[in-house]
Amino acid sequence: MSTFAKRMIGAASLDVPTYEEVEADTTATTQAMGVVVLSSLAQGIGFLTQGGGSGFVVGAIGALIGWIIWAFLVYLIGTKLLPEPQTRSDLGELLRTTGFAAAPGLLRVLGVIPLLGGLIMPAVTIWMLIAMVIAVRQALDYKSTGRAVGVCLIGWIVFVLILVWSLQMFGGGST
Length: 175
Prior knowledge:
single chain; about 180 residues; mainly alpha; 7 helices
C-alpha cells in the first residue's frame, strides 16, 4: 500500500503518529491537497441528488478554497491568539495536517444512497471534526486538546462570518 493511502487510513483512524508524520514531511502538502480534492469530490457525488452538476463543481472548488482559508485562520488563532509555550508551527504544517483530517470525508460519497446518506453525512462530519481537532493539536504542538477545540471553534466562527460576508459581497445573498 502506498504511503499516501497509509497516511489517509492513519488520519481517518485518528492515529496521532500519522498527523505528526505529515506535519514534519514538507513534501506532503501536495498529498494533503489530494485528500481535500478527493474528499470534496466525494461530497460532490454525495450531493449530486440535491445539487446536480453545478453543486458538484462549486462544492469541490469551494472545499479547496475553504481548506486554505481554514488553515490560515487556525494558524493565526493558534499561533498568535492562543499559543502554548511550546507552540511552533507554520502554515504548511497546518495545511498538511488539516488536509489529511479530511480523509474521513471520502465516505461522503455514500451520501448518494437513499436513506443511508442521511445517516452517513452527519456521522462523517463529526468524524472529520474530531480529526480536525487532532490535526490542529498536533500541528500546533499543543498539550491541551481543549485548546485545540477552542482554536477550531473560534476558527469556525470566523470562517462562517467570512463566508456569509463573501456571499453578500459577491452576489450570493438575496437582494
